[in-house]
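#struct-pred

JT: dropping the chains for the assembly here, can someone run the whole complex?
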Amino acid sequence: MSRPGIRFEVLKECPHTRARAGLLHTAHGVIETPVFMPVGTQGSVKGLTQRMLERELGVRILLANTYHLFVRPGHELIARMGGLHRFLGWPRAILTDSGGFQVFSLSALRSISDDGVVFRSHLDGAEHRFTPESALEVQQALGSDIRMVLDECTEYPASHEHARRSMERTVGWARRGLGRLREAVFPIVQGSMYRDLRRECAQRLVELDADGYAIGGLSVGEPRTVSLEMVEATEDLLPRERPRYCMGVGMLEELGEYVARGVDMMDCVLPTRNARNGYLFTTRGRVIIKHQRYREDPRPLDEQCACPTCAQYSRSYLRHLFLSGEILFSTLATCHNVWTYLDRMRRIRQAIMFGNLPNLLSSFSSQRVDEE
Amino acid sequence: MSRPGIRFEVLKECPHTRARAGLLHTAHGVIETPVFMPVGTQGSVKGLTQRMLERELGVRILLANTYHLFVRPGHELIARMGGLHRFLGWPRAILTDSGGFQVFSLSALRSISDDGVVFRSHLDGAEHRFTPESALEVQQALGSDIRMVLDECTEYPASHEHARRSMERTVGWARRGLGRLREAVFPIVQGSMYRDLRRECAQRLVELDADGYAIGGLSVGEPRTVSLEMVEATEDLLPRERPRYCMGVGMLEELGEYVARGVDMMDCVLPTRNARNGYLFTTRGRVIIKHQRYREDPRPLDEQCACPTCAQYSRSYLRHLFLSGEILFSTLATCHNVWTYLDRMRRIRQAIMFGNLPNLLSSFSSQRVDEE
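RK: done, full complex below.
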């Protein structure tokens, strides 16, 4: 079914798992799903140029953080500059989050009511307010292709009672948000680590008939098996024909686990943040580049990798750049890690199309070694 | 005249000034002169990838600092990794300096004798020694295409007597250095700000019949007119058929002044260091990007510039990246500044070829405004 904002097509369902391969059509291009979205927090994926993202990495959709852009440089400025795509010089799709997660994790002196959340900017202490309506207005001003409804990120651990109240607020906010704007707006399933709350939340959000659904509030300190359980508890209630976005989770080896549970879209700061800290993901495990063992290692980070970094540079040179504090290290390491995530997702998608996802997933887990 | 290391051809001499346009042939490609060489201190031009340098900026020769690479990761490691070109993943030419300037400016506890210089690494305090012979052996291990003889950088100001003693030492070191290695080795003219010492130094170095000559010890605090005078005092004594490299000088508007005085090769950290500090060179003057006036400025940094940064990004976005401390700012700003320097040199070379350099130089000075 076509809507003005986005259109999602399921091309193939995995006969063995809940995974699907699809196409997500946006005004800024078609995205093959499942997809991993690199995070451009403040309007830049740290260390990479837009040209690298587009041409060298083949990224089709970026995530940008509404909270960060709201506090600096401001959504109104970005709107006056022609919107986020033009401001960033980025011609492809952009998803913005709701701002909720950062309000709860970064800003100070927040007070939450059913109306919305009042917070102080982490930059200058200025007081601001997000309501379900205003958070979408901000995203509309940014001009992103996919927008999230304001949600309350429940702290972990939370009592069942607290988690229920929090989930009820998120559902209420979703209703108000979708009342303000419907196109390409995703409400977010919350409910802490309680199956019953997750299921109730999903059911009530599905009644709102949104263009897609997000699963939020994961990766907040719970065991990784619990995160996967919460996705399982949610997913079978979500409409097959709408994309599902699981927010902010994923070590490399977990991507396939989420996809196998019916997730179409993922994002995570791990590949980018870990890259800058010298922690590289490879098909054979992690490489911690500062280790002495790489001092005279002439091999690329990952001999099976076709990324621009592995095509041109040795571990020895990368270690030198890291120890020397060179900017180039962040660029090359981020390029490699993002490539590795995207490549993993491409392989997963291909396995779904060919019907052999379980084989691929087991090859990943047998391949993994602790460190090269 | 052909030598194994490099070969220099003068293609055209300016009928109005001392400028020349030429070709410098190296084992890693042909370089059009006059040329500006971006500085890759620790084996990286800060903020840029080798691919950007090669493909987007068209850089044909980089400078790398012998001292920095000697103290980390070490020339022997680089030699074992296949040499500097391979270590860096850089297929084009590399010039290494002598290490002298950094020993005098960065390292601690140095003691200088006619034999050489003993110094402590600025990184770990380890004691090392450079002699004229060993400084060239280090560069030979690095495998650079053009190497510099160890010189003593005279402090400024210096008495005539001190400057003479220092110059004599530099001449003695040049004789020893060229006795150790001749191919593509440039001795360095010193003599502080004394015309007579500069001329005597040049005459004595020319007797050594080197493949090229450097003019060093400038930009150490003297007035800019004095730097130019010292080049003038030196240049007419240097052989026409050998390249002249003026070390470490040059605001954008000065490039043409040096070239008009017979300089073929230049390097300077200004375009790269200033870029990271938010100071941009444009054809219409400087842009200090943090200024409020650029907050909502949708124009590129320089409307006449064809660099990748100006093709894709606004001043408003660049200011946002700078204020947000994004790595991407350093990359985009450095790309622009280096492009601007290279483009300036290309225009200067073309004007020499067409015989209209004075017109171009006067157009530069009339074009310049203090700030856009």
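JT: nice. Chain A has a mean pLDDT of 95. Chain A touches chain B at residues 42-44, 46-51, 72-73, 77, 80-82, 87-89, 295-296, 298, 308, 312-314, 316-317, 319-321, 323-324, 326-328, 330-332 (CB under 8 Å).
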